[in-house]
Write a structure and sequence with these properties.
The structure is a single chain. This protein is of the alpha/beta class. 42% of the residues lie in helices and 18% in strands. The radius of gyration is 19 Å and the shape is globular. Bound molecules: fe (ii) ion. Fe (ii) ion binds next to strand 9.
């Protein structure tokens, strides 16, 4: 529908733009390739957040990530929300717009949770039609992200990876693959995360998310308030092998450290990618080389 090429250009390594870091980013212009902004935080008429957003948008590529589309819900699509999303996109010209493959609201009540869907062909038909409406309205393909989950439905007739692939194909949308969510769900449901990766169609994978979680032994919760753990780094390397260079971003929503600490974690992602792709050149790697030069 929108263009022939499925995935967009590799952006490099990005961070979630958080309020606590607005001033640091503007003042220091850190060597980070791009930022992901939470769309809902900026759906306001003006004010300080908008000031920072516009100033940062002049210096960095941005992508928009939302949590309220409820693309899998049964309420009609919220056109006020979509209009506000489109307006924001016109303002900041994001490279792409993403949300989650889930449902969040019912009867107009927002649960503020990213709730999983039953994996059936009926669900695919339902969601794909809604994605079509959204993409037609926005005039571009959107990315949908796999959510972490803690329950499954008796009604499901297929595995999550088959559901995600089939949905993306039927809806003609792109995939935001959250590597941490795959790990979290694999631990909670007992599937093999490598099987998940091996089954996802590479041609629609536009972005990776990395994040930390809370591990309670018997179960794992996707809290985004910790560093990325070693098994997720390992899974990330497997993902790079399967999907090649994919724009990668670290999500941190709680227990937010100073910006340089997050930048260092992002450099770890870039370093792992550079091991597999030695000619990789990005601002994130430049920052590392610079820091090492200064340390000598
Ligand atoms: Fe994510």
């Amino acid at each position: 529908m929108v263009n022939d090429q499925l995935t967009l250009d590799f952006l490099g390594f990005g961070l979630g733009l958080r309020t606590a870091h607005f001033e640091h980013v503007l003042q220091h212009q850190p060597l980070v390739d791009w930022f992901e902004v939470l769309s809902e935080n900026f759906m306001v008429a003006g004010g300080k957040p908008k000031y920072y957003l516009h100033a940062i948008a002049e210096q960095y590529p941005l992508v928009m990530h939302g949590v309220s589309m409820s693309i899998g819900g049964t309420d009609p699509l919220n056109m006020d929300y979509l209009k506000a999303l489109k307006k924001l996109a016109n303002e900041v010209q994001p490279k792409w717009i993403s949300d989650h493959l889930c449902w969040t609201s019912v009867h107009g009540q927002n649960s503020h949770d990213l709730l999983p869907l039953p994996y059936t062909q009926d669900t695919i038909n339902h969601v794909a039609a809604r994605v079509g409406q959204v993409q037609d309205f926005l005039g571009r393909r959107i990315l949908l992200e796999n959510v972490s989950s803690y329950l499954s439905y008796h009604d499901s007739t297929m595995d999550e990876w088959d559901f995600l692939n089939a949905l993306a194909e039927q809806a003609d949308c792109l995939i935001l693959l959250d590597i941490n969510n795959i790990y979290v769900s694999a631990r909670n449901h007992g599937f093999d995360p490598l099987e998940y990766l091996s089954k996802i169609n590479p041609k629609r994978v536009q972005q990776f998310h990395l994040a930390g979680h809370s591990d309670y032994g018997d179960y794992v919760i996707d809290t985004h308030d910790q560093d990325v753990v070693e098994p997720v780094w390992q899974l990330y390397q497997q993902a790079l092998q399967r999907f090649g260079l994919v724009s990668t971003m670290i999500e941190r929503d709680g227990n937010i450290p100073e910006f340089p600490a997050l930048q260092q974690e992002l450099q770890q992602a870039a370093m792992l990618a550079a091991k597999q792709f030695p000619h990789l050149s990005t601002r994130t790697l430049d920052a590392m080389a610079l820091a090492q030069g200064q340390a000598v």
